[in-house]
């Protein structure tokens, strides 16, 4: 992720605005995004304040008349944000590593000069934090992956990756909530359900929740 000194703010048409925070991809910075989102959600004419990965999207009830004032409020809010610790749930996800769905496990091991067992152990060790939801319904961006298993994203994305795929992309890991294209490397899969439109809250996870991967099986 490219670091920059000052926040970047850009309009998304006339109905939304994107605030991109400076700094690194880590939990302290993400907690500041959560704090800014909580504050901005209470501002007049803001429909939603949606946290992303070290960024925040604001959608408007009506296009702001005083855009400079809104930009100033965002910059001041970011400077004042001390970080919001969200008390979420801890979820344990059983994962089958390798196999047909996790076919990139060997490629990650080769790239990182590790054994398959080392990659699996390193991947399953941390307690991951859900930083934000996005990409597709129910998908969660996780923070906390050990940098020893960083794997550059695919130059040519897969047209279809299986739902439940546990994947690595750059310095991040995540789990696909549904089938779809992906530029990440699948190293395993889980049968857990992340999204169901019939549920009162369709997305199973929320920012602040934590995930621990449990090694169910390793298929070579």
From TrEMBL:
Annotated GO MF terms: ATP binding; hydrolase activity
SUPFAM superfamilies from the entry? Cyclophilin-like, PH0987 N-terminal domain-like
Q: Hey, what's the signal peptide range on this chain?
A: none
Q: Where is the composition biased (Polar residues)?
A: 158-176
Sorted keywords for this record are: ATP-binding, Hydrolase, Nucleotide-binding
Using the record's annotation, list all stretches that form the Carboxyltransferase domain. 7-205
Instruction: Kindly provide the name given to this protein in its UniProt entry.
Output: KipI family sensor histidine kinase inhibitor
Q: Where is this region: Disordered?
A: 158-180
Entry-linked InterPro entries: CT_C_D (IPR003833), Cyclophilin-like_dom_sf (IPR029000), PxpB (IPR010016)
Q: Which residues form a coiled coil?
A: none
